[in-house]
Amino acid sequence: MKKSKILLGAAVIAVAGFFTIAADHIDAPAVTGGANDITDFYAFQGQNTDNIVFVANVQGLLSPTATQNAKFDENTMLEINIDTDGDAIEDLVIQATSRNGKMYFFGPVAPAQTGMSSTIRTMATASSVDITPAGTNAIVATNAGMNFFAGPRDDPFFFDFDQFNAILAGDADGFNNPGTDKFKGTNVMSVVVEVPKSMIGGTGSINSWVESKRKQ
Amino acid sequence: MNFNNIKIAAIAVLISLTAYNCSNDDDAMETSGPDFSGSYTQEDQMARPAINTVFVSTGNKDAFNATVPSNQGAAFQSAFQSKLLALNAGYTTNALGMDAATFTGALATDVLTVTLDGKTTFFDGTNVLTGRALADDVIDTELLLIFGGPMGADNGGVTSDNVDTNDKPFSTSFPYLAAPHQ
């Protein structure tokens, strides 16, 4: 009975358009489905434990067919933000933007300014990697101890999103076992960069997030 | 003397030709290289999974994406708390011992904390929010913290979606993510 009440309350919110697609896939009207719509962000220790790996994914729920023609938007910059002193303001950024089949990377470097607007820090360590076409092995570039990749990948996110919506809508009492992964068989456009910890603070903790920024 | 004059003139011509060629090359490089100029303005933002999708109301989703993290707590904590209590009216604390205000205060500032000193995981039973690895079942963690109550034992039917792994295995080496579906 208690659970039903919770679900009933949740259902009301669901009707108001509560839950679109997680994790951040298609999260807001201005970016939904566009080339700059971030689907997910990951940060984890690399195979080399002296390194941290950042993953920024965009353009969720690509079918295999759609993946063949999927491209990064050349007017969009993906910016990985790193706060090294705990104030949720970026002290370092890693910038990635594509031009003519290559993904260009700048940083880690202090941003010219913090906040909503950025310029590309072309004076920082500059690297690039050929964007891996669909159907070929991953093309990886290395520079200054960093590794770089850009191109389509299997969406690493997994969630029984449809059953969650059914619960919120009051059509189900709980999840199924086993559940059904809504993101099975779909791809994303992925940017992966691995950096030495020594470049982003060395020890302790950082706060990180990713932004997509559009050229004005 | 004449000969020397000729040599000097020849050197002068060579220098000017060389200089001309150099500047010509420079111009060519500038026009053929990628253009990274201009100002770029934020349109989407993300750190922890599903924060915007779960906790931000429909009309505010673009606003949340266009708010820098250091301003998100003040702007959105109270709305997050209302949303949490609407989702789970019986919320008291969660398995991290956070009451509704503390939990939503932590969530509203949407940054992902990453340790540089050891294991990076969203939650592995021991470590909490030290990063986000590809295989982390972040949805179950979030469901547990929203619905599971102080012991993680409440509302058992909605604290796991029973999808525990990705549809493709991850690689142990760069770029770690699995090849795309074809």
Tell me which oligomeric state these chains represent: heterodimer
Q: Element order, helices and strands of chain B?
A: HEHHHHEH
Q: Biggest interface: chains and residue counts? A: A-B, 114 and 85 residues
Protein structure class of chain A: mainly beta
Count of individual beta strands of chain A = 11
Mean pLDDT of chain A: 88
The proportion of residues in beta strands of chain B is 5-15%
Which stretches of chain B of 5+ consecutive residues score pLDDT under 50?
11-30
| Beta-strand segment tally of chain B | 2
| SS field, number of helical segments of chain A | 3
Mean residue pLDDT of chain B: 86
How many helices of chain B does DSSP assign? 6
Helical content band of chain B: 40-55%
Overall geometry of chain B comes to globular
Helix percent of chain A reads 10-25%
Between the first and last Cα atoms of chain A, what is the distance in angstroms?
53 Å
Signal peptide (chain A): 1-22
InterPro entries (chain A): DUF4331
Keywords (chain A): Signal
Pfam families (chain A): DUF4331 (PF14224)
